[in-house]
Amino acid sequence: MQKLIAELMRLYLPADAPPADVLTLHVLGQRNVPVSLTGGDGQTRAMMIPFRKTKGAESDAHWLRLCEVANTLQETLGLPAPAVSISGGDAYYLWLSLAEPVPADQAQTFLERLRDAWFPEIELDTDAVRAPIALPPCLHPRTGKWAAFIHPGMGASFADEAGLDMPPPPLGQAAFLEGLESIGKEQFEQVFQALDGAHQNKPMAVPAPAAAPAPSALRHAPAPGLLLKDATLEDIVRHLHAMNIEPTFRHLLPSDRYD
Q1: Main-chain dihedrals φ then ψ at residue 44, nearest 5 degrees
Q2: Cα-flanking dihedrals φ and ψ of residue 9, to 5°?
């Protein structure tokens, strides 16, 4: 549990976040503690982008959109891989971490310009950076399902119901986070300026994306951090084993098999 709390503090939480014992109760589902990613000094080190299920759309449309956006952040803008989580309800989230805090207003502008450039159909609250959120892992108070960080290769399996029946193991959650990097100060400023130029209808000057490997190579050697929608079971198991996690998979038989 200490390792998980340490990773949450390293990546996302402000210095004046709730103490470790309170966060532990939150993670264990014993107490719901909404947390703001912005500290009392008006600075933030993290941003969250929501992808909610839309009525009338395909059941996995929000997941596919998340994959497109996450890959754009990495391939086009050159940002580190974001964390992916399920809400315990009907949404996925992308989590962006900053190596150094920035004013909340600047972070909000960054999110809004990202939205305008790459995912204009996604609604963002005007105070998205400041508003208290349910930091995963935690128990969703309405559905009784668990919000959790997930391996991107398993995201599609949560398209119909983005929550876990059982609490996720803290060590497994920490393992998903420990390999993530934060967006460096210079990197953030560079992308912020590029988005500002795009906002003013100027050509966007961003780091050139790396050459994409052939489709056949993707299946056998996934690019680090990319959200591959066609990840194989072997890819997922190999990734979990690399983090010293022994996966367990539960298969539920259709109810009519028992009739």
Answers
A1: -135, 155
A2: -70, -40
- pTM above 0.90? no
The residues pairing with 146 across neighbouring beta strands, listed in sequence order, are: 139, 164
Between CA 173 and CA 69 the distance in angstroms is 23
Instruction: Check: CB of residue 122 under 8 Å from CB of residue 83.
Output: no
Alpha carbon dihedral 148, 92, 44, 76, in 10-degree steps, equals 120
Interval 32-62: pLDDT, tens: 999 999 999 999 999 999 999 888 788 889 9
The backbone torsions φ and ψ at residue 95, rounded to the nearest 5 degrees and listed phi first, read -120, 120
- Residue-wise pLDDT for 82-127, tens only, equals 999 999 999 999 999 999 999 999 999 999 999 999 999 999 999 9
Domain ranges of the chain: 2-258
Listed in sequence order, the residues at least 6 apart from 86 whose beta carbon sits closer than 8 Å to its beta carbon are 92, 93, 136, 147, 148, 150, 155, 158, 162, 163, 164
Between CA 112 and CA 100 the distance in angstroms is 20
